[in-house]
Design goal:
The protein is an alpha/beta fold and about 400 residues long. It has a domain of about 160 residues: NAD(P)-binding Rossmann-like Domain (Rossmann fold, 3-Layer(aba) Sandwich), CATH 3.40.50.720. The chain is about 45% helix and about 15% strand. The chain contains 16 helices and 11 strands. It is globular and about 55 Å long. The protein starts with 15 loop residues before the first strand and ends with a helix. The relative contact order is 0.12. Bound molecules: NADP nicotinamide-adenine-dinucleotide phosphate (NAP). The site of NADP nicotinamide-adenine-dinucleotide phosphate has 27 residues, from helix 1, helix 6 and helix 10.
Length: about 400
């Protein structure tokens, strides 16, 4: 996915100076593992919310120019310890500092791996500053997709998807169709098929689902991920969010996207063409593969992930999703159809409901109930300004907080 020009024709970048937004999280740590394998990459800035212990270790190992902690106390604490260790890394605090290291002139690549809506402002800042943006933070695109894609089109930024499914689709599309705004049907594409593992509760009955705990929901069978996306995966909201994400990234409507349960997570997604050909991307379920692909694109580099041995692989299975046991997927598909602020409302209500579930405030099956109630209380509008998006986001969060507190 690129902006106006065909970046396929750009010369390969041999080195890069990188900011990692959300370096202490699951994607952030995997990114640093890939970077550690290649001397061509230099870490310019690392950012986190408040995890001082992890950030300290990362700073000592990668010696970034800047380390940002959004939490001011955490920033103070980190600064004291780093000074004591003789580190030259400068510590910054607060949300403004995230913007500064995302758009800094010395940076050419930004990994956007903050979880949730908090990732939107620095990711947009990186796009506005025409960086190569590796997008893991799907919530930014879901919350403000139209605006995000308009900002991309007005910049010279390059946007590469990190979500394994979208990264797979990107790899399966003809290069000229990866451009933002191009009509993929003209390239003979019939539909995009996003695969889904089905999560830890793929075969769990509705009655049992009502009793599942946060620890069970966070135990994904194939992927090791942060807690929020693990719960999204367990409810299958993650796949609903990914359908919306794919609509924006590849310029298609939800009617051109199908979801298929594939419990082995080996086929990461597929593109079906008009002649009946289906091109799929396969690999081990390891986020270092899409991360290294995007870091080096258009080159290929070693990711550190294990290679597939298909002869030793159990059978690859595919099933249609069950929208009765997983109503969050249905809510996601409906929001994709509706467009406007519907995805913003869905995303905000989901973030609050998941937070509450993880704290033990509501049950697992209450998550879609809360989201549907928030949707019922709000009117969907055209999402054509940041103010309208912020309003919808804040209102949905306020209603969801009230509903979860009452539950
Ligand atoms: N994990 C995966 O395999 C995967 C796959 C595809 C897409 N994604 C997407 O990638 C993003 C990151 O996922 P993750 O699993 O890596 O999440 P995670 O492990 O929970 O890490 C989140 C990162 O964001 C930081 N953060 C949290 N709240 C913040 C705030 N308010 N302001 C600034 N920074 C904040 C955290 O800092 P602290 O450590 O200090 O809290 C941490 O560095 C999500 O949008 C997710 O949907 C993840």
């Amino acid at each position: 996915m690129t902006s106006s020009q065909d970046n396929q024709s750009l010369p390969a970048r041999t080195s890069a100076s990188i900011t990692i937004l959300g370096s202490t999280g699951s994607i952030g740590k995997s990114t640093l593992e890939v970077i550690a394998l290649h001397s061509r990459y230099r870490v310019f800035a690392l950012t986190a919310n408040n995890n001082v212990a992890e950030m300290l270790q990362q700073c000592m190992r990668f010696q970034p120019v800047f380390a940002v902690m959004v939490d001011a106390d955490a920033a103070n604490q980190l600064e004291q310890v780093l000074l004591g260790q003789g580190s030259t890394t400068r510590v910054l605090a607060g949300e403004e500092a995230l913007l500064a290291v995302a758009r800094h002139p010395s940076v050419d690549t930004v990994m956007a791996a903050i979880v949730g809506a908090a990732g939107l402002p620095p990711t947009l800042a990186a796009v506005e500053a025409s960086k190569k943006v590796l997008l893991a933070n799907k919530e930014a695109l879901i919350m403000a997709g139209e605006l995000f894609m308009q900002t991309l089109a007005a910049s010279d930024a390059i946007l590469l998807p990190i979500d394994s499914e979208h990264n797979a689709v990107f790899q399966c599309l003809p290069p000229e169709s990866r451009l933002a705004g191009s009509d993929i049907r003209r390239q003979g594409v019939r539909r995009i098929v996003l695969t889904a593992s089905g999560g830890p509760f793929r075969e769990t009955s509705l009655d049992e689902l009502a009793q599942v705990t946060p620890a069970q929901a966070c135990r994904h069978p194939n992927w090791s991920m942060g807690r929020k996306i693990s719960v999204d995966s367990a409810t299958m909201m993650n796949k609903g969010l990914e359908v919306i994400e794919a609509c924006f990234l590849f310029g298609v409507g939800p009617q051109q996207i199908d979801v298929l349960i594939h419990p082995q997570s080996i086929v990461h997604s597929m593109v079906e063409y008009l002649d009946g050909s289906v091109i799929a991307q396969l690999g081990s379920p390891d986020m270092r593969i899409p991360i290294s692909y995007s870091l080096a694109w258009p080159e290929r580099i070693n990711s550190g992930a294990s290679f597939l041995d298909l002869a030793k692989q159990p059978d690859l299975q595919f099933f249609a999703p069950d929208l009765t046991r997983f109503p969050c997927l249905r809510l996601g598909l409906e929001a994709a159809e509706q467009g406007g602020t519907a995805p913003t409302i869905l995303n905000a209500a989901n973030e609050i409901a998941v937070e509450s579930f993880l704290r033990g405030g509501i049950g697992f099956t209450d998550i879609p109930v809360i989201i549907a109630r928030v949707q019922a209380q709000m009117t969907c509008r055209k999402a054509d300004s940041i103010d309208i998006i912020r309003q919808a986001d804040e209102q949905a969060r306020a209603i969801a907080r009230e509903l979860t507190a009452r539950n």
